[in-house]
Amino acid sequence: MRVIQQTTLAKPVSVSGAALHTGVDVTAVLRPAAAGAGVVFRRIDLEATSARQIPATPANVASTTLCTTLGAGPGAGDGVEIATTEHLLAALSLCGVDNAVIDVDASELPILDGSAGPYVEAINRAGLKPLGAPREVLRVMAPIELRDGDRFIRVEPYDGRVLDVSIDFPDAAIGRQTVSVDLDDRASIGRLTAARTFCRLGDIEAMRRAGLARGGSLDNAIVIDGARMINEAPLRDPHEFALHKALDLIGDLRLAGGHLVGAVTANKPGHDLNTRFAAMLDAERTRIERAAVSPGAVRMPA
Predict the structure, then answer these.
(1) 251 near 88, Cβ under 8 Å?
(2) 75 or 19, which is more confident
(3) Which is catalytic among the residues 87, 239, 244, 271?
(4) Model confidence at 296: pLDDT above 50
């Protein structure tokens, strides 16, 4: 029986821009990788040692403050880190890229326009290459749930990949939003990848005092002040805030490896909850079946 093959990029492709939190100019080069490699970040600004390589796995999550930061192994406090990984990981997942090496010349990926759209455009420019090895999926066989107060992420068996995300903010400009997306539907993927990051105007000063958001601007983030949006440009979608939280969740769950097949429901997700859930999925051996996927067995990005 023919199986769907793992993929990588057909050729290297680069993206450049300012990093959201450090504000430095950074270039990321997305390179082809061998079957089974997964996604690996390389800090090419550091000396050529194995310590500069950071596989995108739950074990390598170093911080979830305002973004997902990966570090080189447990207890990664040695400065070998790469921050704001979630948008690129989401783009790779939604485009069906199984394996890639990401060379980065700084400690944080570029924020670009605040969405995953520019990363998707870069991946499309590079194209995909089949690798001749079967693609692994994580098929949900029984419900799995992680709760933290009224926040939760749950995945249940489903012959497809769907995602329901709800958020609730006191700011009238955001409020409570719920989105339902089919991750194998091109229109849904387009809505997800176009959704930009957002923050409150009142939080910006505190972030900058903490040395963060130095590269933030109205060109790469939606800024909210109570009932109004500071940006002159309109929202790209009426549910752009919830869509962006869904995008972050997709990127963070990519850390579990493979493609998750099931129905995900999340209420008030965030990087901390997302990455803990990814770790649960990665460690699960009873309620998750890891298997090669065949055409027609389940809809998947090719």
Answers:
(1) yes
(2) 19
(3) 271
(4) no
